[in-house]
């Protein structure tokens, strides 16, 4: 009888629980989530074509300018989110599926008709002044946060083994939110140009890009990352359900969205309007990193369990394990420990590669694991 | 002899989980997302359709056109978008007001435009391309406060339409060209404009620029 060492068992447990290494497949005709996803994106695409198609030829300069500017805007965002897609990282295909849901389905299939209706309801109930002051903040956090989060629910249906922890929700939520943000920005570019009846279209695109781009730093990607991390805590898919924490986290994201959209109403026409954007942005960023730290706990634990046998085998030293399964301050400490930024970066990446290969091989030895191990030893 | 179970093909669904070719294990996520999406899309639209407007213009109420500019709306019409004076305040260059009565609507939009009211109306019509309506002649209109607007009416199978463009200032050509632009659009069913003519004319005459202009 073969005795499996305890740490090897823990490693396999971490691989099973995290789902890391499972392939992501979008085309799943037997899966209801796949058909609902197609319905949402298809419906959104049709609405989008109808919306922009009405006068697209006249507003081509504005739309083309908006597409180019916001495509460039995406680059630093994708680099930032790629950096945070660490620990048991999500496949690119899954993240792209979330991005498209956020951009096409959540924006055009859900938010556009739902927001129009709810804004009208607020005007009917409270009058047009009330709707002007508070309508946006009482509408978008409901329709848009839930509309985006449905993308996460569908991804749970499409990849149940891959979407497990609050950190998965955080990263996927950020991608869904980013998709929503960029497509909504294009909507603003178009609306801005129509508001001016086509005068100075490129200038109008540029103005929207500057204002929306700056506001976007603490906008949909942030709201959705927080909201979806909260939703994952409520669902408790990694085994530990934290309903209260999850609900409070989701409400916090909705409150941030409300505060951002109704800043004018909150300031009440006073000097506060000049201070509020910065104050809210700071509070949002502090909350974001707080949620990130808590959401990462489970993933960090899995990472430690996954690489545990490699420490025993002497491939990874404890300091590297702390860094690769740690937070920013742990990686900084490791850089100081090695006195070399580039060497630390190489070792951290190599350790991450090894963890990924181990997960992909289900904890067994494979040519991929052997190669990743050899690479780690080479750069050490 | 133990049977070799082999590797399940990709996408294989065990028989006990199948229903009409679908995997029942995916129902929870798929149908929950569908139900919430439909609730957001059609639930709010249904609720909106069920709630009537109760925002009728009363005598003495005045529309806020931003920066002190005003207009007197017709009594009894529903204010569906926009604010009255003393309310939340309005920006003259991103103004959107919608009044409705029966099948008729009056839309008042404010924007920036550098040039005359005539050129502004040309730009508006150019941005909308060719319409099915038959274009009428262009004339001018002077409000009680001395603002000069450019009027163009049209009629067609989709209804009667009147577009009036203003530059919200009186004085030198330079100051008028630099002032915000205001577009008033009246839409009624075909042949129905005459019913609303007096109310529309009173609204147009009442448009007053801000004191600073």
From TrEMBL, chain A:
It comes from the Bacteria. The chain crosses the membrane at residues 32-52, 58-80, 92-112, 170-190, 210-236, 243-260, 272-292. Keywords: Membrane, Transmembrane, Transmembrane helix. Pfam families: PrsW-protease. The keyword Membrane applies. The keyword Transmembrane helix applies. This is RsiW-degrading membrane proteinase PrsW (M82 family). It comes from Kribbella kalugense.
Automatic annotation (TrEMBL), chain B:
It comes from the Bacteria. This is Uncharacterized protein. The keyword Transmembrane applies. The lineage of its organism: Bacteria, Bacillati, Actinomycetota, Actinomycetes, Propionibacteriales. The chain crosses the membrane at residues 26-44. Keywords: Membrane, Transmembrane, Transmembrane helix.
């Amino acid at each position: 009888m073969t005795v499996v060492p305890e740490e090897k068992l823990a490693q396999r447990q971490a691989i099973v629980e995290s789902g890391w290494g499972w392939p992501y497949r979008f085309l799943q005709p037997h899966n209801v989530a796949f058909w609902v996803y197609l319905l949402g994106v298809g419906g959104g695409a049709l609405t989008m074509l109808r919306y922009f198609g009405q006068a697209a030829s006249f507003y081509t300069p504005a739309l083309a300018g908006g597409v180019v500017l916001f495509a460039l805007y995406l680059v630093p965002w994708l680099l930032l989110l790629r950096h945070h897609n660490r620990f048991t990282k999500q496949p690119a295909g899954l993240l792209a599926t979330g991005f498209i849901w956020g951009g096409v389905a959540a924006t055009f299939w859900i938010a556009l008709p739902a927001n129009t209706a709810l804004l009208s309801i607020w005007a009917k109930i409270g009058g047009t002044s009330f709707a002007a002051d508070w309508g946006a903040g009482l509408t978008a956090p409901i329709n848009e946060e839930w509309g985006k989060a449905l993308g996460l629910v569908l991804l749970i249906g499409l990849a149940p083994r891959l979407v497990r922890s609050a950190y998965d929700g955080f990263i996927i939520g950020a991608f869904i939110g980013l998709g929503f943000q960029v497509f909504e920005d294009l909507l603003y570019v178009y609306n801005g140009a129509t508001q001016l009846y086509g005068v100075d279209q490129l200038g109008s695109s540029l103005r929207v890009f500057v204002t929306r781009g700056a506001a976007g730093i603490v906008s949909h990607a942030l709201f959705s990352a927080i909201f979806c991390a909260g939703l994952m805590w409520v669902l408790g898919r990694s085994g530990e359900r934290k309903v209260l924490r999850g609900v409070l986290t989701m409400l916090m994201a909705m409150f941030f969205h409300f505060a951002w959209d109704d800043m004018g109403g909150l300031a009440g026409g006073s000097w506060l309007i000049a201070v509020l954007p910065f104050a809210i942005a700071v509070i949002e960023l502090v909350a974001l990193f707080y949620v990130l730290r808590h959401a990462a706990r489970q993933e960090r634990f899995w990472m430690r369990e996954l690489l545990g046998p490699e420490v025993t085998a002497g491939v990874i030293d404890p300091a590297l394990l702390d860094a690769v399964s740690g937070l920013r301050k742990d990686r900084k400490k490791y850089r100081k420990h090695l006195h070399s930024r580039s060497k630390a970066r190489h070792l951290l990446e190599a350790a991450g590669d090894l963890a990924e290969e181990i997960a992909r091989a289900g904890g067994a030895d494979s040519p991929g694991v052997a190669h990743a191990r050899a690479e780690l030893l080479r750069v050490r | 002899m133990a049977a070799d179970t082999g590797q399940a093909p990709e996408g294989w669904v065990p028989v006990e989980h199948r229903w009409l070719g679908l995997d029942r294990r995916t129902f929870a996520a798929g149908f929950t997302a569908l139900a919430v999406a439909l609730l957001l899309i059609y639930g709010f639209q249904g609720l909106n359709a069920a709630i009537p407007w109760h925002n009728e213009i009363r005598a003495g109420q005045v529309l806020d056109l931003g920066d002190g500019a005003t207009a007197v709306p017709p009594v009894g019409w529903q204010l569906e978008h926009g604010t009255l004076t003393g309310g939340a305040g309005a920006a003259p260059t991103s103004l959107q007001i919608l009044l409705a009565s029966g099948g008729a609507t009056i839309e008042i939009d404010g924007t920036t435009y550098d040039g005359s009211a005539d050129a502004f109306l040309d730009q508006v019509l150019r941005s909308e391309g060719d319409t099915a309506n038959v274009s009428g002649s262009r004339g001018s209109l002077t409000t009680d406060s001395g603002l000069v607007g450019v009027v163009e009416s049209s009629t067609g199978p989709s209804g009667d339409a009147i577009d009036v463009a203003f530059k919200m200032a009186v004085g030198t050509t330079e100051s008028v060209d630099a002032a915000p632009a205001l577009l008033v659009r009246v839409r009624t069913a075909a042949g129905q404009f005459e019913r609303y003519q007096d109310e529309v004319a009173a609204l147009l005459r009442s448009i007053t620029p801000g004191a600073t202009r």
